[in-house]
Amino acid sequence: MTQMMKYEGLEGSQKNRVLVAVRFRPLSDKERGRGDHEVWECSGNAVGILEDVGMKVKFIYDHVFEPRTDNRTVYKTVASPIVQSALDGINGTVFAYGVTSSGKTHTMMGTDDTPGIVPHAIAEVFRCIARTPNKEFLLRLSMMEIYNEVLNDLLDPARTNLRLREDQRKAGNTIYVEGIREETLVSVEHALQIIAAGNEQRKTSATAFNEGSSRSHTIIRITIEASDRADALTDPNARLGRTISYLNLIDLAGSESAKAEVNRSQRMEGSFINKSLLTLGTVIHKLSEGKAAHIPFRDSKLTRLLQGSLTGSGARIAVICTITPASTQAEETHNTLKFASRAKRIEVSVARNEIMDQSSLIARYQQEIQLLKGQLDMVMRERGGLPLHDPLHPEVRTLRERLEEERQALLARERDKLALQQRIARLTQCILHGAAAATQMEKRLRAPPSEQAAAAAAAAAQASSLSIGGEVSAGSREAAPPPLADVATTVAGVRGAGALFPGADLERASTARGVSEAVEVEADLLRRQVHVLATELAERDRMLQTIHSMRGYGGGSSGTSRGGGDGDEDDVAMQVMLADRDFMQTQLQAADAHSGKLALALERMRRKLAAATGQDPESIDYGLDASPEEAEGDLAELAEAARPLRHGYDHVLAEKVLKMEEKVLLVLQAIRAKEEQLSNQRHVLETLTGLEDQVQVRLRELEGENGSLRQELERLDAQNNNLQGYNLDYMSNEDLGELIGSLTQAVERVRITVQLRRLASKKGGGAGSVQALNLSLDGSATSGGMTREAMRRALEELQSNGHSRRTTAMSDGSDFSPL
Ligand SMILES: Nc1ncnc2c1ncn2[C@@H]1O[C@H](COP(=O)(O)OP(=O)(O)OP(=O)(O)O)[C@@H](O)[C@H]1O
Questions:
Q1: First CA to last CA across the chain, in angstroms?
Q2: How confident is the model at residue 153 (pLDDT cuts 50, 70, 90)?
Q3: How far is the centre of ligand 1, averaged over its atoms, from the C-alpha of 96 (Å)?
Q4: Of ligand 1's atoms, which has the minimum distance to the CA of residue 23?
Q5: Tell me, what's the pLDDT at 310?
Q6: For domain 2-355, which CATH number applies: 3.40.850.10, 3.50.50.60, 3.30.70.100, 3.10.580.10?
Q7: Average pLDDT over residues 395-416
Q8: CA-to-CA distance for 671 and 674, rounded, in angstroms?
Q9: Which residues are annotated as a binding site?
Q10: What span, in angstroms and rounded, lies between the C-alpha atoms of 315 and 95?
């Protein structure tokens, strides 16, 4: 179903006159050679015949091109606006009309050096499409010729004598050529190759004027379907605007009169060519009168084909009348100019053919593409990949790879962080023990010997009251120090190596400060790692968000419609990823919180250490030893914890891949079945076409036979008439003599027969002489109404020859007795 839309370019009017241009060509060498001279001249938009002074006959047109005008100018002026309208959904037709050799083919097709309207139009169509990214176009090209009133497909020579049909539901043009081949165009070069191949099939024969004269009307039809791009619409619920239009580019056969044809077959061609052109003239004439009279579109194939373009179905038309200024062609040129003047008076309505339903091919293709894209998406998703058709596909894949790398790096850092945390916790414990021991030692070293034992006991008590978090119980300083041997053992545990030498307690205390600083550096490192991890997490979130939005999961797009089951499966995959991410996020937060706690504990511990040793907290230093075995143990533990999750994920993916392979197999089977069905249908169609051709041939044979039978009948009728009018009484002597002559011959035949019979009876020794002889004269002798007198004379002659005769039965029933 289509709807005609008003064309804005017409400034409020829906009617538009046919645009008529006249194009002169230069006098050819051949014309000059035979003494032709120019008798027509153009001036502005007027054409006139040259007489001695000025122009006597004058015609005015929309454009008149002088002989030097090139094809590009003709295209730009006449055809380009029609091509652009066609891209906007308005039918367009450009004719080249004129006598043979006047330049029609030169104007329409041109040469490699000067391309004509057809190549220019195709190039412009593709240029405009490239400049319209918010629309999708589908171009199809068909090429046909009308030769001797038979319509042939130039793109498929096997398709001849095609029929024109009418379908009121057809968008843009209800008349169509049944079974014509249409090629979908992909580029300018492709289109020109198709046209060149079609041109090879054209019927040409030399005429008196043009060696390569076109003897047929050639029609190139470009069907343009246009549709808004769904992804370019601002409102996703808005209806896609679709249009369809037909651009006809027509090179007519020469319009010269029959007297120019040199032989019988050309005269026949001429009469057919002229039938189409004559009807075109009549149709144009009637249309130009603007009356609601009967217009004989059906009288010729050409006018029937162009009916949609010439009448109110909405079209823009341009006629280019090509003209030779040669004196010998003056009369034909005059006729061309008169035709052009009539064409100028035609008004046609101009409307855009908007497609309101899903019937257009482009709509079907769009649906099919959507469907295929959906299927492809599904296959790719199920295989754990991303849609190949997605222009961002490589980017998405890179993002996914980066995401995976980041995830791995994050996991590794988490492991490192955990190991560090454990080491910090252990160190904290050791530092506190170390700090208490150092305090006690110093006290013991400074105090008088009597107090040293009490101080050692207090230090031991303080060390035992310290919590892991670094809390020190109130009054710990007053507690009794541990024995020296205990302190030495504790510090040795902190260093993880070496013996503690009695008497070097201060040196140990300064070593403990070094440890504290190292721990602080590590804590600082940890804080920085936490920051880096947080930044990475944010980056990873952003990437996830990008992937979500690309797959329709992005913020606010959760309503994007998807196939039920497949969407669920996809959700599962995403959920796994999200859970994974959340898990890591929680880990990070915990690590963050813990490192904050650690920093606080470290600070408190440092202050306690400083207070215990009476030193500046900044100068306290403890030695530190790493424990790689423990870190490795942690890593293994973490990997073990992650395994079930990873295993589950892989398992789900593997299952999906299997399922998807099954689905792909089913789709492939369906495609194969369809192809087979199509090939069967094509076979049936070919058989039917073959049968139809045979029937046509037989029909023609029968018509031939019918003709000769009719001739025979006519001849017999004429004879019959002659015979019916036969009357001896009115016959001339001459005719009577002739008749009697033939009668005599008949009688002679009878006589011979009688003699033979008699001879036979004698030989048989039978009844003796013949008693009686009954004669029945044949119809040819009696039907003419032979007189009794003539008959009598004939019998007398018989008798005088010695034959006896008694009775003769006349064929009219009367008895005849001899004298
Ligand atoms: N405007 C022009 N400028 C130069 N040469 C031209 C022009 N028009 C036609 N010719 C030349 O005149 C000759 C005949 O032209 P063309 O074959 O286009 O005529 P035609 O009208 O198509 O003839 P036919 O009806 O017999 O096919 C060609 O050699 C062509 O190159």
A1: 97
A2: very high
A3: 11
A4: 1
A5: 73
A6: 3.40.850.10
A7: 74
A8: 5
A9: 98-105
A10: 13
Per residue in 411-469, pLDDT tens? 877 777 777 767 666 655 555 554 454 445 445 445 454 454 454 444 444 433 333 33
Does the Cβ of 103 fall within 6 Å of ligand 1? yes
CA nearest ligand 1 atom 15, residue: 103
Question: What is the 200 CA–ligand 1 centroid distance (Å)?
Answer: 17
The atom of ligand 1 lying closest to the CA of 109 is 18
Domain ranges of the chain: 2-355, 393-626, 733-816
The mean-pLDDT minimum among 10-14, 199-203, 741-745 falls in 10-14
Query: Which of the residue ranges 117-121, 170-174, 676-680, 798-802 would you say has the lowest mean pLDDT?
Result: 798-802
Average pLDDT, integer, range 101-129 = 95
pLDDT surpassing 70 at residue 82: yes
The binding site for ATP comprises 98-105
How many CB atoms are closer than 10 A to CB 299?
A: 16
Does the structure show a pLDDT above 70 at 36? yes
| Centroid of ligand 1 to alpha carbon of 115 (angstroms) | 13
Structure tokens at 330: 């003056």
How far, in Å, from the CA of 497 to the mean position of ligand 1? 108
Packing angle of the helix pair 393-446, 628-724 (nearest 10 deg): 170
Are residues 16 and 350 in contact, defined by beta-carbon separation less than 8 angstroms? Answer: yes
Tokens of 635: 């890593």
Choose among 17, 77, 20: nearest CA to 323: 20
Going from the Cα of 103 to the center of ligand 1, the distance in angstroms, rounded, reads 3
Q: Report how far residue 172's alpha carbon sits from residue 536's, in angstroms, rounded to the nearest whole number.
A: 59
Q: CB of 526 within 8 A of CB of 417? A: yes
List pLDDT tens digits, range 480-494: 333 333 333 333 333
Mean pLDDT (whole number) for 750-771 = 57
Is residue 701 predicted with pLDDT exceeding 70? yes
Locate the ligand 1 atom nearest the alpha carbon of residue 67 and give its number: 1
**pLDDT exceeds cutoff 90 at 224:** yes
Instruction: Confirm if 82 and 62 have CB atoms less than 8 A apart.
Output: no
| % the chain with pLDDT above 70 | 46
Q: Indicate the average pLDDT of the chain.
A: 68
- Dihedral of the CA atoms 385, 386, 388, 392 (nearest 10)? -140
The CA-based angle 794-799-805, given to 5 degrees, is 100
- Which residue pairs, CB below 8 angstroms and at least 24 apart, start in 114-118? 114/70, 114/71, 114/72, 115/71, 115/72, 116/71, 116/75, 117/71, 117/74, 117/75, 117/78, 117/79, 117/249, 117/320, 118/195, 118/220, 118/249
- Shortest-distance Cα residue to atom 10 of ligand 1: 103
Give Cα separations from 641 to 97, 415, 420, 455 (angstroms): 86, 12, 19, 49
If you measure from the C-alpha of residue 739 to the centroid of ligand 1, how many angstroms do you get, rounded to a whole number?
A: 69
Residue with CA at minimum distance from ligand 1 atom 13? 101
C-beta 322 within 6 A of ligand 1? yes
Question: Ligand 1: which of 69, 106, 319 to mutate, judged by most atoms within 8 Å of the beta carbon?
Answer: 106
104 close to ligand 1 (CB < 6 Angstrom): yes
Question: Token pair for residue 403?
Answer: 């995401």
Any ligand 1 atom below 6 A from CB of 106? yes
Using a 6 Å cutoff on CB, does residue 98 contact ligand 1?
Answer: yes
Q: What is the mean pLDDT of residues 183-206?
A: 84
**DSSP sequence for 600-624:** HHHHHHHHHHHHHHTS-GGG-B---
- Name the residue with the closest Cα to ligand 1, atom 3: 25
Which residue lies with its CA nearest to atom 14 of ligand 1? 101
Locus of tokens 């005059």 = 334
What angle, 0 to 180 degrees and rounded to 10, lies between the N-to-C axes of helices 733-764 and 788-800?
40
ipTM entry: 0.98
pLDDT at residue 229 in the model? 81
